[in-house]
Design goal:
elongated
Amino acid sequence: MRSPCYGHIIDPYNYNKFTELEPDYVPENAKIAAEYLNIITKRSEPSSEITGEQLLQVIRDNPTLVQQLAEMVKNQSGKEN
């Protein structure tokens, strides 16, 4: 297929005929992807992401754990050098 402008080849590998050659591929894979792709509504499942405020609250509530984490990071970074 050639473009109406400049004579460029638009689809040299005939990808636009893929759905004719494999008609079940797109619907089957769309069903698989559908549960992960929802562009119209918000997510139905709760997000595993935490907000910055939630992270700050955990840090405030657990100063000992934060200190232990800092020591672990310090020790690990010393091993890498």
